[in-house]
Amino acid sequence: MTSISRRSFVVALPLIAVGLASAARAQGDPPANASATLFQNVRIFDGKSGSLSAPSSVLVKGNIIERISTAPIAVEPGVVVIAGNGRTLMPGLIDAHWHAMLIRPTPVQSVNGDVGYNNIAAGAEATDTLMRGFTTIRDVGGPIFGLKSAIDSGIVPGPRIYPSGAIITVTSGHGDFRQLSELPRTIGGMLSRMEQVGGSMVADSPDEVRVRVREQLMQGASQIKLTAGGGVSSPFSPIDVVTFTEAELRAAVEAAENWGTYVTVHAFTPAAIQQAIAAGVKCIEHGFLMDEATAKLIAEKGVWLSLQPLPEDLRLGFPVGSVQRAKADEVWPGIARTYEMAKKYKIKTAWGTDVLFSQALAQQQGAILASLVRWYSPAEALAMATGTNAELLALSGKRSPYAGKLGVVEQGALADLLLVDGNPLENINLIADPAKNFKVIMKDGKVYKNTLGG
Ligand SMILES: [Zn+2]
User: Per the structure, how many domains does the chain have?
Assistant: First the structure.
């Protein structure tokens, strides 16, 4: 490029950017973007407490909850008023274990399908996710960065995304979805299709792990996800195996901590969990085959346990006689045991769903949360999916994509809010039917749904 053409290119750039932004607004079905919204006469579940507040007013300005008061707040010009009529105002829900790119496609489509199609399908699912009241998700594996940018720039409505990017695994580990026909791979040779699309990356030494971790951070990962032990859905990954070595896990932890963030690992067994903790991992996903000694260790070290009350339908979805079904049959009985140990040892527990490859199951996202009442009160379950999950998100530090406090209704927090028709602390099943019971859905101060008018 000559210096003249470079200069005209640089001059043209802002114009291109302006053009793209207005095109995005024209096509993106933008939310009603009031600069201020006043909720009157609402009872607040604040994301922590066991009971609702007295009738209150809540003023949102820009994307922040500016004021909460039991006394009336004066209506300034230009403020949109929403009459709550005693309904419940609560924080937007947070799913701490979600794979936004892996809900609508089949497993084969997710690897071999057209990338553009997969992103558009994931965009539609992201809109549905937001309309279920989930204003934030922690994405623990998948080629998520494009979808996240499209949501953040207002092209497609969807939740806030805390992205991990590609799942980092070992040869034959959970997340290695290659076929045996793709082996052996030349060392330093071609990437597999799965790796090219950014779904998961295979790394078999500390050096390779560092490269793959740093690549995810460079793309905007807010935390790093590795698979430290076998998994149910992977064809060549037995449940009982430990995959990474401690040195490999430590390499990931160092690279993440150099960037001020943390590593979370998929792990079921005591051996896999204990090795991960020794390497400095800050969060364990699932942990369903852990024993009492491991539960004690998790509690002692202050490590997070990210649990999912996986529904029976997910287990039954694996064909009888398949390797995956046999593994699911081994893991599922551990779910209840693990929840009981998490309570017994007061482990810091996050909640998520881990829905994979099923739009129908994704529609049960709220119902899966409500199913926590097997072990918790409705208030405890809802606090886990709001205030507590937000504490886990905060581990990302400066790598958090969104400045501000999430998961709570308090002055100065980000305005991600749901107005619920009824009291979910008395009837948590209200959460399971969001189309009917969520009258207002607000994310980042913008109203995405309002069936009350105002
Ligand atoms: Zn998962």
Answer: 2
Same domain? For 181 and 219 the reply is yes
Q: By the 8 A CB rule, do 119 and 73 touch?
A: no
Distance 218 CA to ligand 1 centre (A): 22
The domain containing residue 272 runs over which residues?
Answer: 93-375
Nearest to 227 by CA among 161, 163, 141, 290: 141
Query: How far, in Å, from the CA of 369 to the mean position of ligand 1?
Result: 16
Predicted TM-score of the model (pTM): 0.92
In Å, how far are 223, 240, 269, 361 from 265, measured between CA atoms?
11, 15, 12, 24
Confirm whether 331 is domain-assigned.
yes
Q: Which residues contact 274 (CB under 8 A, 6 or more apart)?
A: 294, 297
Q: How far is the CA of 418 from the centre of ligand 1 (A)?
A: 26
Q: Which residue has the tokens 């499209």?
A: 150
pLDDT, one tens digit per residue, over 16-65 is 343 333 333 334 444 445 589 999 999 999 999 999 999 999 999 999 99
Q: Are residues 158 and 193 in the same domain?
A: yes
Q: How far is the CA of 80 from the centre of ligand 1 (A)?
A: 40
